[in-house]
Fold these 2 entries.
Entry 1:
Amino acid sequence: MTAYDYDLFVIGGGSGGVRAGRVAASLGKKVGIAEEYRFGGTCVIRGCVPKKLFVYASQFHEHFEDAAGFGWEVGASRFDWAKLIEAKDKEIARLEGLYRRGLENNKAEIFDSRAELVDAHTVRLTKSGETVTAERIVIATGGVANPHSALPGHELCITSNEAFHLETLPKSILIAGGGYIAVEFANIFHGLGVDTTLIYRGKEILSRFDHDMRQGLHKAMVEKGIKIILTDVIEEVAKAPDGGLTARTKCGETLSVETVMLALGRDPYTKGLGLEAAGVKTDERGAIIVDEYSRTNVENIYALGDVTDRVQLTPVAIHEAMCFIETVYRNNPTSPDYDLIPTAVFSQPEIGTVGLSEDDAAKRYEELEVYRAEFRPMKATLSGRSERMIMKLVVDAASRKVVGAHILGHEAGEMAQLLGICLKASATKDDFDRTMALHPSAAEELVTMYNPSYRIKNGERV
């Protein structure tokens, strides 16, 4: 029997990798884990967590404005970017410490180094040149922002990574992209007082979301003062004489801004990882190909999280890690469940969604009932703000099962999490109707829409 240095070696210290390593170590396995940057991964260090902190910061100017409608007199306010960055960095350091302590407390061995595969059981730690062996290896290296290297002048631009560490807040910014990262940062920068423009090649932002959500958010963003350019792309970025940047677009526009941000998706982080040496197969995007149990084509090597390009969400990576533990160390083969994942876009207003969009549901079910409510939230009645909330339930007419729930408005993400439980439990529209409303609340609309707004039969609205 071959003796290995470790029972499990994890490459990547993000949420999925740390969970797999920590739990395996708690079960008495000898675990090593390597991370080349900081423990916590994309979400904690340069993703969801700092982004949400920035979202909170960017909302205060509206809160100050709204206060007047409720009788408060708020004096002059001033935003200090440096103080936000300092506070954010302190919180991220605290969270990273928790990740490390969780590993240490369970006696996992931590390596602050890049790790690369030498073969199916051997890992090289590039910082020291040391090689170690492991019975099993988990690859959880995550993803990286697409640098869009084919774009002339891309080196003058930033990605979401650099957005968290800018020395000064720009006066103007052009953000390329129409996905949730681009949309969230457009709202963040606008909320912090930056002249913000979003440019996207598609006809609508957030193309994978329900059409009422994306159209409602688009309208709200434009009303706030965010400029949105559709069906156009940046063709070149160059230095301007005044020290700023000039972006030339395919449709002939020339935009002068201080900063250009590329939010054009994220790619699996597999380059130079030694996958070829170990015989691990990848797809055309560089994502590691895995089976239903997160196992690669090499029997003892597994991959979790964004590096597999399945569903790029932190809770999904953690779920995949727990399924790995069940399968490998608890003799309980468990495959990840990707059905009905609640999702939020932390824009302003927020989007919360779970299940099928109206368009996707229409392709799957013969007849749908669609329940839709649009209204001015109570808070806006005294603040004087013109914002609207949209709530929408998509129902299979035959079974009465709610197959999609979508919300645009304050705390939509919080509501979507709870709706996720309902849809996971196969709740019907009758279950919603039998539920007593909590008044006054925005969420009561979800249980008081008794009559369908319209129906869809064989893909056509009737």
Entry 2:
Amino acid sequence: MTDLYARHKSVLPDWLALYYEDPLEITHGEGRHVWDSDGNKYLDFFGGILTTMTAHALPEVTKAVSEQAGRILHSSTLYLNRPMVELAERIAQLSGIPDARVFFTTSGTEANDTALLLATTHRRSNTILAMRNSYHGRSFSAVGITGNRGWSPTSLSPLQTLYVHGGVRTRGPYASLSDDDFIAACVDDLKDLLGHTRPPAALIAEPIQGVGGFTSGPDGLYAAFREVLAERGILWIADEVQTGWGRTGDHFWGWQAHGQSGPPDILTFAKGIGNGSSIGGVVARADIMNCLDSNSISTFGGTQITMAAGLANLTYLLEHDLQGNARRVGGLLIERLRTVAAQVPHVREVRGRGLMLGVELVKPGTDEADPDAASAVLEATRADGLLIGKGGGHNTSALRIAPPLSLTVAEAEEGAAILERALRSLTQ
């Protein structure tokens, strides 16, 4: 055990998860690579949990943060804040939500917590619809609507949560159906559920479930849900903390794969927009955002130093078409991984889109999750110079691949080769 690991264990909570049998200290990064305290170099395919969106040590972001730090770091929302207004204007325009208002927080957890406050206040209901296998953060209200037992430590909640089918396409009672029949069955289930409960405030859903292992329903599922919800005045909250900013390649927001019935009423974001700075936020129609009848502030949400980072990062993302890069490079990467998976009996499925890809592992010849195999692959890829993540619903057996969106074709090939060696080692 290293000295730092021993110190970590003596002063931090036991439930604060660490990857690897010998935990890793990352000291610096550049582009798509990071280095540890022993000087080892790694290709980063997880980006601080989908947070380093553009690149490590991106000069444009570093310069913007440095210049802002030389002026003022922070003043709170009690004062006018030019960088906050400028970033809010850009996000409101990009959101697709009409008459949008933006509120900044410091994390995705806090963003989802705020969205729940807005929805329940606007609708005068504390009932929330959430998806099975979902994850929405670690606050008291967020764990109460998280449909993933491994990340929900209490059943106590200020909300009544009802879980809906549809977040996982290839498991569950509707897995054998065609996409159209799957959607129809999920809609029928939703209608039946709504007949047995008081009117809910909102449905909250990740377009692609992050911690759940990058699972999703068919395109159009939430559009079909929205038709049912809108008839009853129920709001749709799109949790874009992991799917936003072009990561899926095909769309700028994950909800746009389900946009046939219009945009969500509320959108939450975080992670990638800050490229490592603590930025989260909520976008909502003005009538929803303004429904609170008491004053509020945010001490650190929208603070100048993080807004400068967000503005520079978003500008770089758009000017360099990183969404298009995610689509092109991610398309090559998923096909490469599917070719490998066809020859490895531990791989049940390769899924996802853009640079948000999941590889689900099972015990060969069964449908049973194999978390030990996932841990073994994590260790093997690290030893070979690649960092990836893991997740999953009933058990943590899905590899999560989410590099910075500036990933090159050569780096994708390098990472795929390392993953191939690690996956093939499972059969040896």
